[in-house]
Design a protein that fits this description.
The protein contains eleven helices and no strands. The protein is mainly alpha-helical.
Length: 183
């Protein structure tokens, strides 16, 4: 069952607060799967945010640097504020908050240039590759995530993304997903 956008924001905030990389990656997988079934900009952005944060919290040096720690605290605060966006009319406000979260993450680049620089671009590429491996067309995966098609093909081939996806959906499961979308 798909989580609401506010529930997803709270789960990401909780995993970030607890520095739980495993939980963050599970959230990321769920968001990517939902994005593959019914593309939604907000779900995609949560996939991107959770991917990037899973990479950031896997690096302990971020907890000891003041600027990075302040950025992480700001991200938690912004994620908690996303809980209030539950109605369709709030989606523009949610999008603005999600973009603020990504900007706060980018500010960590000032604290440590070894890691964050480019991590958002890598996250977009990884998500696009996963979507492509799940059966989304190359053009659609590229367009959804804002990645270059050639980069996407190269990344998918180098990482053997198709071989790494364990779950193969049967026709029955795909039809069930389609019925859920259109019901």
């Amino acid at each position: 069952m798909a989580l609401s956008l506010s529930e997803t924001a709270l789960l990401i905030a909780s995993a970030l607060r607890d520095r739980d990389v495993h939980a963050m990656r599970k959230i990321n997988d769920r968001c990517i799967d939902e994005t593959a079934v019914k593309f939604g900009q907000h779900t995609y952005l949560y996939a991107l945010i959770s991917y990037v944060l899973s990479k950031v919290i896997s690096k302990p040096r971020y907890y000891t640097q003041k600027k990075a720690a302040e950025s992480l605290a700001k991200v938690v605060q912004l994620l908690r504020s996303c809980e209030s966006f539950s109605k369709q009319a709030d989606y523009e406000s949610l999008l603005a908050s999600q973009n603020k979260i990504l900007l706060a993450i980018e500010k960590m680049d000032d604290a440590d240039r070894r890691f964050v620089k480019g991590i958002i671009s890598k996250g977009k590429l990884k998500i696009a590759s996963t979507l492509y491996a799940q059966g989304i067309s190359l053009g659609s995966a590229s367009e959804m995530t804002g990645t270059d098609k050639r980069e996407l093909l190269l990344y998918a081939g180098q990482t053997m993304m198709f071989d790494r996806l364990k779950e193969k959906k049967s026709i029955h499961e795909r039809m069930k997903d389609l019925r859920e979308i259109f019901s």
